[in-house]
Amino acid sequence: MKVVKFGGSSVANAEQIAKIIDIVTADAARRVVVVSAPGKRHGDDTKVTDLLIALAQTVLEGNDYETALLTVVARYAEIQTDLELPEDITAEIEADLRERIAQRGANEAQFMDTMKASGEDNNAKVIAEAFCKRGAPAVYMNPGDAGMLLSDEFGNAAVLDESFEKLAALQHENCIVIFPGFFGYTQAGEVATFPRGGSDITGAILAAALKAEVYENFTGVDSGYAMDPRIVPTAPAIELMTYR
User: Fold this and answer.
1) Contact yes or no for 24/140 (Cβ under 8 A)
2) What is the distance between the alpha carbons of residues 171 and 163, in angstroms, rounded to a whole number?
3) What is the pLDDT of residues 81-115, one digit of tens each?
4) How far is CA 207 from the centre of its chain?
């Protein structure tokens, strides 16, 4: 069994999501798929996580947040439309964001985590629907239900040891599991996130808990490069890399 993780650039739009469905279904061993929030669609774009941080900050400052909220919803609406998924998915995402804001508590760091985590959480639900539409049975898995327990260091949480035994039962016999990265729940039931880039951490935790054959981490570039290919377009690929 393999755990597969796709970063923000790999799930940024409908075209990219269609690619990951092809990748996952090409290997029957790929049973658990960890996904990020939608990343940049192009160089001048803004990641959904950054849109959510801006939305949360607007709420915390007591300013009108309607435009910021609808900007986030529009990103999912574009994906939903292009994948020809039911329109109620977008309505559910908007309702989810409004509920998160309405249930805001006194802890600003915890509220920020709740808002940031919605990026991965809602994208996982969209992607699970996209798999099913393509004839690949898939199920969204909530990290809290699965047993992803984290410390209450909001924005910089760490996995608790008891998570591994709980997560070991994650596999679904007849469906591909779509698991949102980046966040889990404290023992008090509050959303907490890993540091930025935390979907990589989620994937590694699941691979360890499930004793996966391999953990595959896909990204938006073709390989590791000897230098930044955005600066040096002819940068050579690193074909072999040792631990040392």
Assistant:
1) no
2) 15
3) 999 999 999 999 999 999 999 999 999 999 999 99
4) 16
Contact 12, 218 (CB under 8 A): no
Q: Which amino acid is at 37?
A: A
Residue 17 · residue 29 · CB < 8 Å: no
191-193 and 176-180: which strand pairing? unpaired
Residue type at position 162: E
Residue located via tokens 């890993």: 194
Number of Cβ atoms within 10 Å of the Cβ of 175 = 17
Identify the band that residue 170 occupies on the pLDDT scale cut at 50, 70 and 90: confident
Query: Residue 153 — pLDDT band, cuts 50, 70, 90?
Result: very high
Between the alpha carbon of residue 158 and those of residues 113, 143, 203, 208, the distances in Å are 14, 14, 14, 15
Contact 119, 38 (CB under 8 A): yes
How many CB atoms are closer than 10 A to CB 179? 26
Neighbouring CB atoms inside 10 A of 239's CB total 7
- DSSP symbol at 195: S
Reference 6, options 169, 22, 87; nearest CA is: 22
Tokens of 242: 């040792």
Residue-wise over 142-156: b if at least 16 C-beta within 10 A, else e?
ebeebbbbbeeebee
> Which run of H or E residues covers position 138?
strand 138-140
Name the pLDDT band for 166 (thresholds 50, 70, 90). very high
